[in-house]
Structures are given as structure tokens and as C-alpha cells.
Amino acid sequence: MNAGSYGAGFGIGVRMWLLWVLLLSLLSAVSGGADSKAVTTSLTTKWADTPLLLEASEFLAEESQEKFWDFVEASQNIEGEHDDTDQAYYDLIVKKAGALLSSIQVNMLKFALSLRAYSATVYSFQQIASNEPPPSGCSAFFSVHGEKTCDEEGLATLLKSAPERRKPYLFKGDHKYPGSNPDAPVVILYGEFGKPDFQRLHQVISSKVNEGLATYVLRHYLANPSGKKVYLSGYGVELAIKSQEYKAKDDTQVQEAEVNATVIGENDPVDEVQGFLFGKLKTLYPELKEQLKELRKHLVESTNDMAPLKVWQMQDLSFQTAARILAAPAVEALTVMKDLSQNFPTKARSITKTVVNSEIRKEIGENQKFFKGTLGLQPGDSALFINGLHIDLDTQDIFSVFEVLRSEARVMEGLRSLHIDTLYIHDILKLNVQPSESDYAVDIRNSAISWINNLETDHRYSSWPYNVQELLRPTFPGVIRQIRKNFHNLVIILEPTQENAAELLSVAEMFYANNIPLRIGLVFVVSDEDDIDGMQDAGVALVRAYNYISDEVDSQSAFEAVISMFNRVPIGGKLSVGDVVKVLEKRFPYVEVSSVLGADSNYDSNRKEGRAYYQQTGVGPLPVVMYNGIPYQREQLDPDELETVTMQKILETTSFYQRAVYLGELATDHDVVDFIMNQPNVVPRINPRVLSTSRTYLDLSDTNNFFVDDYARFLTLDTKEKSTAVANSMNYMTKKDDGFIRPVTFWVVGDFDKPSGRQLLYDAIRHMKTSNNVRLGMINNPSAAPSAETSRLARAIWAAMQTQFANNAKNFITKLAKEETAAALETGVDIGEFAVGGMDVSLFKDAYEGPKFDFLFSHAAYCRDVLKLKKGQNAVISNGRIIGPLEEEEVFNQDDFLLLESIILKTSGERIKSKVQQFGIEEDRASDLVMKVDALLSSQPKGEARVEYDFADDRYSAVKIRPKEGDVYFNVVAVVDPVTRDAQKLAPLLLVLKQLVNVNLRVFMNCQSKLSEIPLKSFYRHVLEPEVAFQADGSFSPGPMARFLDMPQSPLFTLNLNTPESWMVESVHTRYDLDNIYLEEVENIVAAEYELEHLLLEGHCFDVSSGQPPRGLQFTLGTASEPVIMDTIVMANLGYFQLKANPGAWILKMRKGRSDDIYKIYSHEGTDSPAESDDIIVVLNNFKSRIIKVKVQKKPDKFNEELLSDATEENDAGFWKSLARGFTGGGKPEELKQEKDDVINIFSVASGHLYERFLRIMMLSVLKNTKTPVKFWFLKNYLSPTFKEFIPHMAKQYGFQYELVQYKWPRWLHQQTEKQRIIWGYKILFLDVLFPLAVDKILFVDADQIVRTDLKELRDFDLEGAPYGYTPFCESRKEMDGYRFWKSGYWASHLAGRRYHISALYVVDLKKFRKIAAGDRLRGQYQGLSQDPNSLSNLDQDLPNNMIHQVPIKSLPQEWLWCETWCDDSTKRSAKTIDLCNNPMTKEPKLQAAVRIVAEWTDYDQEIKRLQTRVQERVNHTKQTQGTDVHTEL
Length: 1530
Fold this sequence. Notes:
disordered C terminus
């Protein structure tokens, strides 16, 4: 019971009195403890804040370019239209955009602006502009083919000279002004719309466009970017409780930074602690404010008592938490779930007191059976479905969820605007209308195919069984069943004189000779002229010889003879007549060759049919191989590939037949070939234009009352309204005049006064007469301006459709479409002569000769503006899908219309029709609705199939929120265990969804029973807000951040960020150690600030010739002016590579040096440049993940060269650069060019202030003992800002080089969740890709080590061919024997007498390491082992020891690593390095051990502290001299 509902029956006085008593009794118990402590986290971009106005325009651009430009026009004077507050500016943007958007989309826009989802888009244009670079003194400027100006006169001059220069490259996201002339010069305007300068230039250029003088493209550009940064959201922050078994805290005092105290939400209305709503109490009793504050503090401290729970108390926590959530009122249940899951460690104790009733348990149990069976979810798993689409929380970030919401909203609103009831909308959404990726087949029952064998009749197969039931008999997997039925048919269509004909035939011969149960047929495509002499044409000769031998002997002998003919052809040569003659003469010495091959041969039976069959089936370029009528892809025609793929298809199809036999669809007496050819994927003709899955659709989701016979009105409509007007005005021809819902609507577009247009129409009519599923409408696209002379037929067709009964009109138009009619009309014959019986000729004549041409003008405008056709071009529109423009000579015939119809009926037509029938509307309107719904559903990007889940019982175990009546709503179903990380993420996401859109929400509890440990050991916040927030004065609030208020002070916390996969973030500006946050020692707030340092560009790369990843290939990313900004190496695992970038347009190349000597780029997908261009351009313009695929090929002369050869890469230009990239120890660049071998590369990782302190001391000990120059490599991902600021000073003081490297853990590699384990992973898993190829030896030295010798000795140590060397564990300290886990159990047997090695110090020969793919092997083994949470407990150490048999380890001499825990005191004298290992017996803290064990440690520590003090003084001094008032800048 909460304070709000507290005894309403009491008088106010009584409540007041009770409260006083309560306060007094509690205050006596309150001691003067410290104030509440908080941790806050924010994440900003590296780039400057982008104006919300521009972000809103990018949101609209995704709706349509028209809306983008309408918004730009509407926002020209936005500056002057609002008072100066941020809130007024924001409201005005939303209002202006709202005029172009529906209400759901307005909410989406608000969410996008709160997420700042389009900030990256706007900034990417800024980066593109900076490459131009902008001319000085212009706040907006034109770029005309590379030349720039910012005034009118300049533009006119540049337009004149533009054709001499190259047109600029335009990106997919560019904004082209409507009505731009595509042949005119391209003018790019860089500017910020809404500003006066932009307005001036915009008017200049838009008038040029209207004169047809330019194509105008707008790109955002801010002349004076703001000083602020963009605050991001859409990420999670975790405060995990650390184990304090070994003390790892630094004792150095931190200087407090001043913190803005408004962060802590004092005014939070739902400020609930232990059932008291303090927000409400403060408003009810303002005079008790101070006492309430004390009470709240006391309650918080008592709640935060985190004494460990007993095991029996934990068992039922998951169910108890669920019961607590389900007990809350539905409106608040999500808030309760968020609070309990995100603050679980402090809530757990009170949750253990909850009672769970049996109904909840029973229903959850029932549902779990169902979840497991249909969704594959185990107890404790979670899932989220929006309208049945599965949202994978691990891989999909909020930006991709936002995309899903937007596209779903579009479809639902489209259906709504077609006046479909909300009830039916979800039914229609569930229809899966996406084109199936199924392989289409053509009919192989054709006389053009010469079958070589027939399994059912040939003698050689007579011993095989005949019954189809044989298919069901069990065999070993992979065995091909030999049954005397033509189950598997291979047809080869070839031109005998093509080079690869011989290869294909030899594969066929191999199949035949080895008795593979495959019926093989050949189609020879040769000349089809009438009288042709086989003595002149090798192809014709082959066909006649084949026919002759088939007739004389049999088809097998004919096939053998053909093989012999091809065996005579030299490699790379072509078949000649001589080859055919030689074989014939040898086999049939008595026959007159010329009588068989000559012009008047009798063996010419199916020569012409071969070519006819090939053309009619439309199967694409020769040679073609088909399996059961399905053509193979080009790359599968390679002989080896062909063999494998065919065998695979035989095995796959066998299971299809087994099912058919089992279900009784196929019996022994059926003809198998007929059975295959009656499958739904068999089409009369394969037309790639019809079958391709990249399709464009008209937007027909609109209802209006406009028509095409008012041209002036028609011109004012937008694209969507024009399409609706055309549909409203369309009259249709059908096969019969009956009331029937026709699911297929064809619009034929063409100039019907030209032969090609008439031919297309005639073919369409012929098809329409064979099928009652089709309606046929016509749109005229005139070749010239419409006039009485040039539009006779178009007007006649229109007039007939308007005035005559359907059947008469149809017969009349069929007559008009014939060429002889058109010819007669040309010569002046009266159109009345062609009237058909029953026509009302006078009515027709009146309409035909009427003066109004409006419909012609409207159709012409529609073809130009909406269908984007040139004058007179043909196209076909089927259910809103645009097929065209058809090329001049392109065949599109009756078969193609049949193919189109069969595809529509199969994928969408019938399904939508059956739904529309339920609406009970009149047939013509229903047919229209089927067409419009089809266009809407099919135009959606192909997504996953929707999941049906009208399943589980939701009476007791689900939170239910009903949608608002009458509005379109989203169906959201979540399945979740409330005590998991998923619940911590899901609860805030669902809360935002609920505010954002109308939802029908059900959250099912999926609890785990019998927990043996506490399920959540961390606090969590998910940063997400449904719209932009403002402060009381109307200015923007400081930006979204994670707030952990009232945290318990005893535990030691570590802070982790959980960001979308492609973000690389780093910590900036915080003095605290975020790895070890101990709130007792903090004044008030730990403010962690992070910055989005890079967006990742990831990819996969393969070598086309071998199909393998090219290991060691290097890519670079940069711009035209600076080609190498980032570089990377391709891994062998999945050919994976990653490059760090930021929003903008980037050029991806292979690195100069070996990479681009040996390889060239073959093709690429997912990029922003056309597939054939050599420069790969990638535009990063949003926060979502970007993955590209690149295929490369070796250059012909480098076919035998390897990238990772033994020769050193002295000539690799990238080498010195990579050395010079880091800070170069104050030396001048030329001094760097010491001998390459003369730099010792040392790698180390550290996290947290204590380990960074150790790391500095380790570096100092190396530098004091090593004479050779040193370069340190540190893993940047986890270093604190303090360390990164100090390291340059240290490098300058001691003269070493350093470089910070980073690599994002790849998404496909099993993720670790604990920070310590992630860092261990980085020590071992990415050694081959972290460093440039030029680094060939690297030493790893742990941070907590002290070096006492020159490390050159270790670098030059002979590893005897092993890729790396480690020191084995000491065995001399006998009292520790009980802790040597490698002496028994798994390790003892696995190592089989070898030593177990310690991972604190190792040396890696990177050349060898890469050559034997050690990195890929280690990652592969890791992937397998890490799925089990109990394996690899010391990841960095267990993994190499586990792989000792595959990746050998060279054991280093024992003195290289001495550590007190395992080595006895006598060996310490000779130690070359001392490691501060943890001691499992004494658990002594690191700092204490360091001072005790290593004599020189304190001196080193003091030396560095003195340097730190000097540096700090210098910094403070600089600050003072720059001006005393530093704060004004902040």
C-alpha cells in the first residue's frame, strides 16, 4: 500500500498526526550519516551539435524527397517565427514537420530527435563538405563540378564552363531538387537551410532548375558549428559489484572536481522508497521538507543493507519478483519491473518476503512448455515481438528497432487510409506476401531436348527397384538411392562452338558412366537458317551427326561420339567441322559424310527447336545447366562445383520426394516428370526482369476523389495522389462480364499509336482472354505532344472504354491493336469501319471526336513525373509493381504476362483476396483494394517471417496494457524473466514504446526456479527518452544521462557501458577510477563522461578464385586528400576486418605495398559506389551497424605469391608511417629511421588506477634496464583519461615511443560480460590484427611486473620455430603444492608431462604467428570452449596452454619470471623479472606485496609521483596564464 492510497477515510488532521509520530520515532534512529551518493554517466559525440531542424529534414527525407523539399520551403524563415527559447524552436519544427506527417509519424519524429538518430546523417554531409573544402568567407556555397563560388554571377560563369569538368559523384542519401534536368550540370549547394544566406542562394538555383539549366543537390553544411556536443542515448550503463577477494584499489587521493548538482532529481514525482512516495509527501506537506529529507535518507540507508542472502532465500527470487510485478496495477507494472530489475542487489532482500500464489506458478509452467515448443525459449530466456516480428535484443540496437517501428507504422497507416478496419489490419499484416526466394524452374517436357538416357526404360538400369516406396527405406546418410524413376533430370543447353562446352559434357559423361541416377538431356543451340551446310558450320554438323547416330544405333552411342569429337579439341580451342568428320569416318567408315552433314541432310529434325526452346524459356546467357528445370547460377558451372552442387541437389530433392511419397502425393504409377513439372515453382518462361527480387512499387495507399480528366487539377497533386487519381479513372477489360474479385491488375503503359506499344497491348489482351483472374487497364505514354493526329488509337481506346459495354469494348480494342487496323487508319479510313457488332457507334463517335484531351495530358504527365519514363517508353504495372521501362527491342510477351500472373497469385494475390472477401464490398472496389494492399505490403523490405503467438494464457502471469480504442495500434509481446540482464534492458524500452505509440502490450513472465546464486549482481540504467526534454526556462535540459542515485556505499563498483555493436566509446574527463568506484570515499557525485570515438565499419573479404579469406590483406580507409587515416588486417575467421571511422564519405582501398601488388578488388556489396567501380566509397551516415562484403582476386602474374611470405617487407611504405604514428619521444622524424630491428616493441594492458600505477612503474623499470630504444603499445579501450593525459609527458621525459591500439571485440566471437575477462581476452585473441604487419616481434609484459634486465635478450631469444614463448610456472615453493591445479585432473592429462605456462610475460614472433594462422586457431578454440561458463577460468593463460598441441609454446628459462607465490626465495637473486602474482593462501593486497617484495619499487613510485606533480603544476600554470576566468568557456 502506498502513501497516496493511504486511508482516505482518516481526517487530514489524523494523517498529519500519524506522519509526525512516524517522523519523530524514525528520526531518533537516524545518525548524522553522509549525504546520498550518486554516479552519473553521459555519452557524447566527438562532433559538434547538429541543429534539430536539419535532423528533422533527414527524417522527412526517409519518408520521401517531396516531403523533404516541402519542409525546406516551409522552414525558410524559421529563425524569425519563434521567440528565442529552445522549446519554441523545437515546437515550431515539430509543427512544420507535423503538417507533412501523420500523428504516429510525428511521435516517431519526436523520438528520432530525442535519440539524435539523424545527427550522424547531418554530420556526414559536414564531413563531405570539409573535403571540398569550403571557400573562405562563405556561410553557404555552390560547387559546380568541383569549382566553388558563393554568389550569383559566379554561378552563371561556372555553369557555362561545367561541361568541361567531370560530374561529381552523388550519394544515395543526396537530396535532388524535384524537376532537375538530369542532363544539365550538377550544382551542389552546401548550406544550412533556415538561414538567410541559404535562402538567397536557394532562390537563385531553383530558378535555374526551372529553366532546365541545372540539377540541384542540397547538402547540409554549418559554417559555424556549435561548441556543444550531441548527447546520445540508446545505450545501457552497468554498475557491477566487484569481488574484493584481492584488494585492487589505488590509495592515491583523487582531487574532487566541481559537479553540477542539478543532476540529482530532487523533483522526481515518483520518488518512492519502501512504499513512501516522497514526491507526493513533499507537495502535500511543504513545511516538513527538511524532516522528510532526513526520513528518506534513513530509509534509503536501511534498504541499501546488502548483507548476503542464504541459498534457501535465493531459490525462488525469479518467481517472487514476477509476483511483485504482477501485483502492481497494469499502468505501473512496467515501472515496478524496471525498478526491481535495475536495482536488484538492494531490492533482493525485501523481494524474498513475497508470497507466490499457485495460479501464477501453474500458468507460467504451462506457458513455458509452449514457449519452448514454438519459440525455442528455455525458462529464463527472453524475447520481444513487435507485430509478430522478432526483435533480437542482443544484436538489434534501438536504432534498428526504430526502423522497424517506422516501417510498420507506414504499412498500418497505409491500410488505414484504404479504410480498412483496425481489426483486420493485423490480420492482413500477418500475410506473408514477400516474393519467395524460391528457384523458378522451366518445363523440360519439350521435344527440343535430346535425352541421352532414360532410367525407366533403359536396359542398363533394369536391375534397380522400381517402386517409389524404396525412397522411405532407411540408408546411410549421403547415400544416393538408385531407383528406376526419372526423379533427377539434368539438362545442358549449349552452343557447341563455345569454349567451355567440352568441360560441361565431360561432367555429364562422368555422371552417366558412374551410374548416378540422373537422366541427362542436351539442347544444342545452333544456327536456325533454312538451307545451311553442315560442312561449313561445326554446330550444325554436330547436331546432324548426333541425330544420325541416334537413329542408326542409339542415343548413348551418339553421346559417346560427341564426347570423342570434343576430346579432339585442343585446350582453349573451338570445335571444328573436321573434328566431327574424323569421328564419323572412324565409326561409320562406309557412310557418305556429306549426305549426313550437308545442306540437304535428312538428319535435321530438331535443329531449329533447340534455339526456339532456349529463347522461349528465357534462361539467360549460354551455357545453361538445369536441374529439374531450375537453372544453376553462373558460378556453379565450374566443373568441380557442378559435380558437388548436383550431388547436393539430388540429396536435397530426395527428402522432398520422400515427403511426397509419405503423404501419398506421389505413387509408383504416377509419371514423376509430370509430378515435378506441376510444382508451383515451374513457370512457362524465366524472365529475370519479372523474377528479380529488387522491385519498385507505386504508392497506392491513399483514398481521394480526383480523376485524370481535369488536367489542371491533376498537375497540383503529389505523387501518391496522382497514382490514386489514375486508379480512380481506370476502366478495365476482363475475360467475362461477371461480378468476380480479380486479384491481378495489369496496367499496360505505352504509346498505342506506335507498333511497339500496340504489340505489348495485344499480348496483354491475348493473355487476359485466357484468365479470369486478370483485369487490364491502359495508360497512354505518347512519343510526341498529344494532338488529334498523333493520338488516334489512344483516343479510340479511351472512348470505347468510356462508352461501350465491356465485352464490345474488348473486342473492338483487340481489333485496334492489330497492325493492319493502324495502317488503315493512317491512310485515312474512318474508324467507324472497324466497329464490332453491338457497339453504339454514334455514342462512341461523340466521345472520340470530343475536343478534350485532358486524359492524354494527365497520362503523359503521370508517365513522366511518377513512372519516370521517357516519352513513348513501354512498361507494365502489375498490382502496383513497376516493370520497366522496357528496352526498345526487349521481348515481353504473353508468356511473361502469364508468369507475372502466376507469381502474384502464388505470393500475394490469392491471400489478400481471401481477406478482402471478408469485408463484403462490391467486386470492382474489392479488386481495387486487392491491388492497393498488394502494392503496399509487397513494397516493404523483405523481413523475417512474422511469428504467430496467439497462444499463451495471460490471465495470471502476464502484464497487459490495452490499446486506445479506434486507433491503429502495435501488437507488442515480450517474454522475460524479470531477474535477468534482458529485463533490465527491456523494461525501459517497453516504457518508452508505451509512451511513443498506441500499443496492445503483453509481457509474459518466464521465470527460472531453484536459483542457487543471486541472479543479478549489478545495478543497471538504460538511457532512453521518448522525446526531447526542456528545463523550466524553455532551454534544452543537459541531455540524456544514466543516473544511479542513493547507491549503497559499502561495495566496490566497476562501471561498464553497454553500447550498440558498432560504437567505440572511450572515457574522457573524469578524475575517478571507474574500475574501482568506492562511494564511501567520494564527496557526492562520480560523473563519468564518455565520448563516441568511432563508428565501426566492418566487413568480410574473400578471394574469389580460392573462396578463402586472404589472410594478412590490409585495407586502408581515408579521403581523396588523405588516403590513409585508418588501416586494418583481414582475419582468416570469416574473412573479417574492421575499420574505425566517423560519419562521412570514405574511400576504402587495399594498402599500398604487398596487398595492392598481389591483389585487385573484384567486387563489393553493401557499399555506396556502383559494384564495378574501383574506388570503394562507403558513406557512414547513421548510428546503425555497417557491414560490407569485398571480393578480391590475385593479379594474373601474382597467382603463386602469398601475402604472408618469409621475406621481410622492407619496402612496405606503411612501415615507417606506422612507427611515426605514435608519439615519437621528442625525436625528429628523421632520427626515427634507426634500424628497424632496433626497436623493442612491448605490449601491455591495464584497467583501473592501481594497475595503471603499476604499469607506469613497469615501464620505468624497462627503460632503466634496457639500452635499445623501446616502443610501448597499450590497449586503448580501457585506459583512464588520467593515464592518457600523462603518458605524453612521460614519453617526453624518458624518450620512448608509444602507441595506443584498439580493436572492438567482433560481434560473432562469443562475448564476455565481466570486464576482467574481456581484458584477458584482448591479451591473447587479437595479436595478429592489433599491430601493423611491419611489427614482427612483440613482448607482452604484465602491468604488475618489475623488469631487472635488458629486454633485448628476450626479444632475440631463439623460439626454435614456435610462434610464441612463455615461462612455465615455478614449482620450487613446496608449501603451495595444494594450489597447483595443473598437477592433477584435466590439466595433468591434457599436458601429458608438458609444463603449464604463466601468461604474465611472453614473446610472440608475429611473422610465424600469422603464417600458421595461430590467431585464427586460438579464436576458433576459444569460440568452442567459452560457451561453457566453467571452462577457461583464467582465459589468457588457459587458452594457450589448452592449445599447446596445435600452437606449440617454447618454454623460456625459469629465471625470466620469478613470483613469490610459486618460486622459493633462493631463486629470487637470478630473477630477470619479478611478477606480483596473487597469493591464494595469504590474499595479500598488491600494493603491500609490491613494497615488501621489490626493493626498488618505492623509488620508482616516488620518481613517477614527482614527475606527475611537476606536470600538474605546469598545467595549472598554463591555465592561469590563459586568463583567470576559465569558467566562462565551460
